[in-house]
Amino acid sequence: MLGRLIINADLVVKTGLHIGGGSSSVEIGGIDNSVIKNHKGEPYIPGSSLKGKLRSLTELAHNKIGKNEKGENLPCNCGECFICKIYGVSASEENKSTDRLPTRIIVRDAFLKDSIAETMRRKEKDFKDLELSYTESKWENSIDRLTSKANPRLFERVPEGAIFDLEIIYTIYKEEDIENIKNLIEGFQFLEDDYLGGNGTRGYGKVKFENIRFFTKTIKDYTSKQFGDTKASVDEIDDIWIGKLKEQMIDTK
After folding, report:
1. Could you write out the three-class secondary structure of 25-72?
2. What keyword terms does UniProt attach to this protein (predicted)?
3. What is the model's pTM?
C-alpha cells in the first residue's frame, strides 16, 4: 500500500430525501414509510446506499452493467476494470483463485452535522416548521389504472437543507489507483444530476457535494496532513493535482 486519500465533504439535501428504514408497527394515521435512523433517532445515510448508488451510476455511464441467465441486471464483476478496482468484486467462486487487491474505497455512514441536528431539535431557522424532530412528512398518492382507486401513503423525508458529514477513504496500492481518483470524482458528478434514496423520479433525493476537502496519508509517515490547497470543487481535480499526488505517494513508499 502506498497510502490513502481521505475525502471529507458536506452532503447537502436539496429536495426531500427518503432512505427507508422500515417499522415494526403502523398506527392509524401514522407514517408507514419511515426513514432509517441511528440510535439517537436522527436520520442518517448508510454508506452502503451511497456506495451502491455511486457504483451503479458509474457502471451505467460506462456500459458495465452485467446480465445473468435470466436477463436481470448485475453489477460488473470482471475484477479488471476501474469500477471493480474502486468498488470491489463479490466473493464468488471465479474470483477466489485470482490475484486481486482489496476494494479501494470505504464509504462511512454519513450523519447529520451537529449544528444542523441541534437546529432541527430546536425547530429553529429553516426547520421551524418541521412536524417531527428531524424529518417532515409528505403524502403520496398512487392511482389504480383499472379502477381509478386512490392509494394514499404517508412518507417520511429528511427535509431540504439538511447537511450530512461525509467521509470516504480511498486506498492507493498502485500508481494506476491515483489515475482512477478521477473516475471516483466523476461518480460524485453523476449523483448530483441523479438522486439518492427512493422516489427519485418523483422529485426526492437531489443532493450536492459541498466543501470537498482532500487529505493524504502516506506509508512513510502516515500522519494526517492536508494535500495542497483545500479543494472546494470536484472540477479542481486536474492532471497537475494528480501528478503531484503521484510524486508524493511513489517517492515516499
Report:
1. CCCCCCCCECECECCCCCEEECHHHHHHHHHHHHHHHCCCCEECCCCC
2. Antiviral defense, Endonuclease, Hydrolase, Nuclease, RNA-binding
3. 0.83
